[in-house]
Design a protein that fits this description.
Shape: elongated
Number of strands: 31
Largest sheet: 9 strands, antiparallel
Oligomer: single chain
Distance between the termini: 32 Å
Strand content: 35-45%
Number of helices: 0
Length: about 475
Amino acid sequence: MSPNRPRHRLDRLALLLLASVALAAPPLRASGVVHLDFTSHFNGDAILNGQFATVDQVQDGLDGDGWGYPTSSTNCFWGVPGDAFFPANADHPDVQLGWANDDDGDNAWQTDSGQAGSSITVDLPDQRYEQIHLFAGSDLGGTGVTLTLNYATGSPEQASWSPPWYVGGTQAGTYALAGGLSRGRPHATLGLDCNNTGTVVLHGRAFQVDSSRALVSITLERVGDTGRLSIFGATAVAVRQSLDANFRPHFNADVVVNGGPGTYDADMDTIEGQWAFTTDSAGCGDDLPDVASFPASGGRPAVRLGWDNADDGFNVWQTFETTGSITVEVPDIPYDELHLFATGAWVTDATLTLHYVTGDPDVFDDLAYPSWFDEAPAGYYNLIDGLDRGIATSPTDLTCHDANDPAIVGRAFVVDSTRALDAFTLERTDDDGEGVLNVFGATLVVHDADPLDGLDPLIFHSDHEDGDLFDWDVHP
């Protein structure tokens, strides 16, 4: 079946927000992160820093016995980074806390027994945020903290947390910013005393923020009257605006079975020559959403791709056992990231070229999108996975395969935000007569929201939560 036959297109789609989809998230880049400044509130030293022979001998520690988190340069087996930087992963964005291996000063806000009700307020830039990540450890006395989110308008919001540190895991709703650690303290004779249990955790927790309001500050108040509480800092994840690149002029294949019983789309292509994805309404079981809207999740922006259950038209750019390329234009403004979404049949190689208004392009020639049954490799993430697959042979006949495995994979590319991007080129490069590359679309994270003012929302959708119509056929 030719992937290039003419097809009917739905000219206008109402953009619907999918309420709940289990999504994996890529790391969040620094562009969307604000590291809150706690230095004026630091009053205790709970990080054992220095080299073995020069370990800081003046420590407050995390508990009454003087134990603290050692850095990796001490002689303890497992320590925290000496520069207090934790690169982004699926749990948290890039995190920068307040200690340094060559600084013997304070690095935590600490409160002790008898100090219940003690509090600090930390300001942050007045803007909308999605999350506040808080990093802390407390003694075994059940000490905790109440976080108050102070907005520019309306009432504040509160949440509480009690983060133990000397445990072999994390509580529900928390994660290990650093886990499997030793604990350490100064020793008058040896210089250093290590307890290499590998059960110590520096905890993090993500608190959801009302993203419809500007957040201006957070207040932390100690809860409980026994034990020591140590707060090391917080990182805020800002709301980042995104827009979807217009792939519609390049779509040449239909790899999603849509419709329902009696209206299955039987005039279609496949991912790899036999099977396709199915929508919820088609009903194989673990399906794609009827409308290809994915709300923002962690480091990934909100995404709108090209299928719709009411549209029998094309929904991917497909290269079937051959090379090929497309160039997609975007508004001439700065961006932080480009997220590209695809799936393959067998591993398929490609090159992405970013074209700027000025200067040389950036070239990423290491793309290797995995087969739709393979795990997302390092540097990629699953937009949605654990899917079934199906094929319709008539409007009333749908065959399903309970696969629980296929995925659409994303990858985030860093864009030079000092220059305006005006287009990008995607080229399928392997020419071995095997494999199929199916590209569903791309979403760009805008460096500054101001350039979006005045853009035609029917060309590029810039706010995934306002319900504006999206016109896939208009091309700038």
